[in-house]
Amino acid sequence: xxxxxxxxxxxxxxxxxxxxxxxxxxxxxxxxxxxxxxxxxxxxxxxxxxxxxxxxxxxxxxxxxxxxxxxxxxxxxxxxxxxxxxxxxxxxxxxxxxxxxxxxxxxxxxxxxxxxxxxxxxxxxxxxxxxxxxxxxxxxxxxxxxxxxxxxxxxxxxxxxxxxxxxxxxxxxxxxxxxxxxxxxxxxxxxxxxxxxxxxxxxxxxxxxxxxxxxxxxxxxxxxxxxxxxxxxxxxxxxxxxxxxxxxxxxxxxxxxxxxxxxxxxxxxxxxxxxxxxxxxxxxxxxxxxxxxxxxxxxxxxxxxxxxxxxxxxxxxxxxxxxxxxxxxxxxxxxxxxxxxxxxxxxxxxxxxxxxxxxxxxxxxxxxxxxxxxxx
Length: 376
Known about the structure:
Elements: E1 11-15, H1 16-33, E2 36-37, E3 39-40, H2 50-55, E4 60-62, H3 65-75, E5 79-82, H4 91-96, E6 98-103, H5 106-118, E7 122-126, E8 162-166, H6 175-189, E9 198-200, H7 214-227, E10 232-235, H8 239-242, E11 246-258, E12 261-266, H9 270-273, H10 275-279, E13 289-290, E14 299-302, E15 311-317, E16 326-330, E17 350-354, E18 360-364, H11 368-375
Parallel strand pairs: 1-17, 2-10, 3-4, 4-5, 5-6, 6-7, 7-8, 8-9, 9-10, 12-14
Antiparallel strand pairs: 1-11, 11-12, 11-16, 13-15, 14-15, 17-18
Helix pairs in contact: 1-7, 6-7
């Protein structure tokens, strides 16, 4: 049990035991499905846990030169890299650090593919099967007019040198959504599947969610593999590795009441430290809090940036918050640290790992020099 009073505030805290529970699930899917599962850094680039992740995965995937280099240097293997656009400025670094590279368009492959092929890098194309279960347009790569991936009408023939195809249309999805995505891929791109070496099914496979049916996922992958036995199947979940493995610890620094609205002012920011809450939007869980019932006081959580909308609500507490109390947000490891900003120069949360032994290791603390160096 983590003693959050002994954790510095603000701080992201990863629970080592919860991470290991997730890795056991991922290992089972790898073992029983025969598919490769690689870590998507876009969800969590916490490289201090790379040695553990590397033991329970088949590599890592990058979306930029910086991520590719981090995989190459800290994960101990070249990256599977996909980015919407490569440039003359970053392509050399990406090729140096990658052994698979996926291109978003035929024009990008024509421009940079020959350089990759000369280095023996396996090249792929991102396709758009024109199906996605994602309802929020901000996160839906298959909306009409999407800039992400090649639609079937644009891919009349497979260019020479292409080893694989890649699609990414899921987000915290279930196995039945993968089944529908694969049906769309076979319908629109099936003529190519027995002519390529690998199919990357992207991320969004939330196999560590308590309600996810891993048996169904394994059956879907086995069935697809039986239909296309020459294909390497690759999944690159991001959230699944660190789903519900940690927290963002904050402190109530003030109580504001205005117009009947109670707000606990925190030393963290939704805009800076939990941007998905505002973008999706979604309401995060807080330890010791629940949805308000009739007659209970509704509490907002207020962020510490000057953005007017830097707040979220509403929660109720068994014991009403007071200045000095810890507010602990749950499930704050994936898509949090990687999306933080230093807007307003607000204090950046520290990063810690809660070990199974009960010890807490502070991995990183941030200060003025970090802010200054980003602004120079």
